[in-house]
# Entry
Amino acid sequence: MVSESEIGAAVAEKKAKRESFGGWEYVRLLHDWQGWPRGTILAEGRVIPGYPKIGRVQTLVGIPALFHAPFWAEEKVDGYNVRLFRAGDSLYAATRGGLICPFTTDRLADLIDPALFSAHPELILCGEVTGPETPYIEGTSPLVAEGVGFFLFDLMRQGVEGFLSIEEKSSLARSFRLPTVPAYGWIDPKDLGAFREIVRQLDEQGREGVVLKENSPRSFRVKYVTGSAELADIASMTQRYLDVPPEYFTERVLRLALFLEDMEATDREGWSRRLGEAFLTALRERIGSARRGQCVGSFRCRFHSRENALRLLDSLAQIRGHEGETRLVDLRAEEGFWVLRFEKLYRSTSGFLRNALGGSLRFD
Amino acid sequence: MVSESEIGAAVAEKKAKRESFGGWEYVRLLHDWQGWPRGTILAEGRVIPGYPKIGRVQTLVGIPALFHAPFWAEEKVDGYNVRLFRAGDSLYAATRGGLICPFTTDRLADLIDPALFSAHPELILCGEVTGPETPYIEGTSPLVAEGVGFFLFDLMRQGVEGFLSIEEKSSLARSFRLPTVPAYGWIDPKDLGAFREIVRQLDEQGREGVVLKENSPRSFRVKYVTGSAELADIASMTQRYLDVPPEYFTERVLRLALFLEDMEATDREGWSRRLGEAFLTALRERIGSARRGQCVGSFRCRFHSRENALRLLDSLAQIRGHEGETRLVDLRAEEGFWVLRFEKLYRSTSGFLRNALGGSLRFD
# Structure
C-alpha cells in the first residue's frame, strides 16, 4: 500500500505522472520507484505492477550458464505488451508505460472473457496484442491473420510483486478459456539441441522467438529472438527509416549475425539476400511514396465506442515511439463498429527523400 | 596575410591549434575562420588553404538543375585527402584536418617528382593517397594493387583562395609527370545519359565515383558516388562495427537505394545479396576474431625514416576517426625501408562481441 503523500512526492520529483481515462484518475510510474518498475499504475490504493524488463540472452551458450533449473519455453509473440485489470466496476488495458490504451480497453471483452474478473477481481492478465488492426504495429504476426488477438503470457495480482506460477496460470487459462501464447514445455538448460530445434521451427515460420522461464523461486526469465524476427523488424521500420534511431537497424543486423552463428546456418547466401531485401525493398517503396507525396503509415482500427477512437488519437502523442504527427483520415460506423482510419506522417523520412529526389546537394 | 596577433586570438578561441612537426611549428584551423576553411595551415606568414568540402548530389536529377555550364568529370578515388606543399626547404603533406602526416610526408618523393616545387614553390598539390600500405585505410582501391599511390585532383597556390583552372592543372601535370585522377572529359549537364554511362562503368569496376567540376568562375563542384562504393564502405567499416556511429551504415544503405533508382537497376536480387553480404561476411569474420581474442585492424606501412614511423604512431591519436587504441607490432629495417606494423584495437566491437559470445544477458 502506497500512501497518497508518497505518490504526491513521486509526482513532484517527476518519477510519476497523473493521468486520467474517462473519469478514472491514476498515477503511472515514469521510472522505477520504491521497488515498483516503470509503468506501474497507482490508483485508489491499488497497485498494478509494471511488467518488468526481460533480458536478452545473446547467444545460446548463455542458456546453460544462466539457468539453474529447467525452464518453461513460451513463444514470444510480436505485438505490444498490455496488462488487463479491473478497477471498481471497470476493466482497463494498460500499455507497458502505464497509460490506459483506449483501443485495447475498448476491445477488451473481445479479447478475453471478462467473467474471469468477476471470479478473480485482483488478477492482472499480462499478454501481447497483435494483428493487422492495431494502432501501434504496421507488420502483422503470422499468428493473427485478421483483426486483433490477445495472447496471455503471465498473471499477476494487484499489489503483489511477481507472477503466479506456470501451473496456476495454466489452470486459470484453461478454466476461463484464455488465449495463451503457444508453449513448448519444460526444457533442461543443458539440452541445447531441443531448444535450438524449437527456435529453428519458429524462425522458419517467421515467428519472433521464445521466452524462457525458470522453474524456481527467483522467477528468472530471458528472451531469445529469431533471425526472421530481426529481418521483419528491419523491413517494417525501414518504412520510417529516418524517423527511427539508426542503432535500431545496426543492432538488429548484429543480432542476426549472432543468430546465424548460433544456428550454424548454412544458407548464408539466402540470409544475405533476405537482409539486403529487408532494407532495399522497403526503401524502394518509400522512395516511390516520397515521389508521389509523403511517407506515411496507414492504420485501421475498429472500436465499440466512438469516444475511445477519439481518445486513441489524443493518446498516441504520449506513447513512446509514436510521437509523430497523426492525421485522422476517417471515422465512421461500419457493420456494428466505429472504424477509425488514421495516418502517421514520417516527417524525417519524407523530408530527406523529397530533398534527395529533388536533386539537392548534401554536405556530409 | 594573417597577422600573428590574429592567429593568437584564433588559438585562444579554440578555432585554431598550434602544432609542430620535427622542428617546424605551424597553426591549423579547427573551424572555418576569416574565410579560410577548416584544415588551413598558417605558418611563417604563409597560408596553405584547407581543402573545401564538396557537396554530394543525391540523385542524377540534381545535375541539370545545379550546373550552369559543362562540367569536367574526374574520378573520385577512394583514399585519404592530402595537400603537398613546400615550406622553406622542406616538403610536407597535410591531412584534411591540417595535421602534417608523418607517413605521407616521409614518402612524398615516392609519390611525385619534387622537382615541381623547385620550379613552383608556391604550388599546393591536392590529391588522394590510396593503396594497401597506408596507415588509414583498411580496404584498397582497385587503382593501386600494392604499396601506395597518389592521384592529383587539384592545384592551389599558397595564400590564394580557389583552384588553378583545369587547363593549368593538366599542363603542369603533364610537364612534371604528376599522377592524376582518371578524367572523363567535358560533359553537358543536360546529357545525363553520358554521365550515367561513366558512373555505370566505374560502379562495375568497384570504383568510388565522380567529382563534377563546372567550367565557370564560381568553381562549382559536386560529387556522385557509386553503389559499389557504398557496399565497400559498409563491408570495410563493419570490421569495426560498434566503433563507428550507427548512421555511418544506415546513411550508406539509403544512398545505395537512391543509387539503384538513379541507375534503374534491374538486378535487385543481386544488389540485395551484396548488401546483406557486406554486413554479414564482415560480422562473421569479426565474431571469429572475438572468439579468438580481440577485434583489431592490422596495418603495414613502409618509411624512409624510422623517426617518421614513430611520429605516425604518436599522431594517430589526434586524427579524426583514428582515435582508438593503437599498438606497435613491429618496426624493423627491410629491403631499404623501415617497415612499421601496427594494430588498431576496436574496443567496443571486441567488448560487445566477447560479452555476447560469453552468453551474457542484455537489457535493450
Notes: The mean pLDDT of chain A is 95. The radius of gyration of chain A is 22 Å. Chain A touches chain B through 54 residues (CB under 8 Å). The CA atoms of residues 110 and 127 of chain A lie 14 Å apart.
